[in-house]
Amino acid sequence: AIVFPLQKLERYLAPGTDTARFRLFQPGLAALQRAEALFRSDRRHPIDYVSSAVRMDHAPPPALPEVCFIGRSNVGKSSLIRALFSLAPEVEVRVSKTPGHTKKMNFFKVGKYFTLVDMPGYGYRAPQDFVEMVEAYLQERRNLKRTFLLVDGVVGLQKTDHIAVEMLEEFGIPYVMVLTKIDRASRGLLLKNVLEIQEFVKESAQGCFPQLFLVSSVEFSGVHLLRCFVAHVTGNLPALEAS
Length: 243
Known about the structure:
Organism: Phainopepla nitens (Phainopepla)
Domain EngB-type G: 63-236
Strand order of the largest sheet: 1-3-4-2-5-6-7
Radius of gyration: 17 Å
Largest sheet: 7 strands, mixed
CATH superfamily: P-loop containing nucleotide triphosphate hydrolases
Pfam families: MMR_HSR1 (PF01926)
Number of strands: 7
Distance between the termini: 19 Å
Family: Belongs to the TRAFAC class TrmE-Era-EngA-EngB-Septin-like GTPase superfamily. EngB GTPase family.
Number of helices: 8
Cofactor: Mg(2+)
């Protein structure tokens, strides 16, 4: 249940409910261990904050495969990134109680393997130049392999999330949805939001990976699986391990 939170919910679904989209990415133990090693820093494999940027000409060179995390202000984006980097505690990911704390694109380099980008939140207290900053990044960043769109597990898809989806679809950017704060939602509410989002993706999305990822930055549910998926989309897992 810690690794595959979606499977924990299956027993509560009505008989006959299609759960094929719950199991599209089901890595084995070897792949999970490989991903954990990538997120664990040491002297030969440093994980570092690189720089922040408000314009693309301030961004570091696009030398490595890259993933970015985007979502509404207060969706728990920085908390999730800190959880992903918990095996490298020296990496400073600032988490604020005030929504909209992230005002710049923050770049983190994971050894020689990939870069992870913490994007400013949209909606409440978004930076004034948010649209220009994010649109330029999404359209110009040639090494971007996947965008992770975070959705609050308690409130589900909001109007601002739909706008973000429209932007990603318009630009033809491959993305995946991540449901955050699952520890705060009741089982019934969580199931409702999961099924509604999966139906939305099935009916209305072209560039979204069909499987929804569930995470809790507090209980670490789903964090191991998400690390593995990041390793997979950045080309750092042997194909057989990720199947």
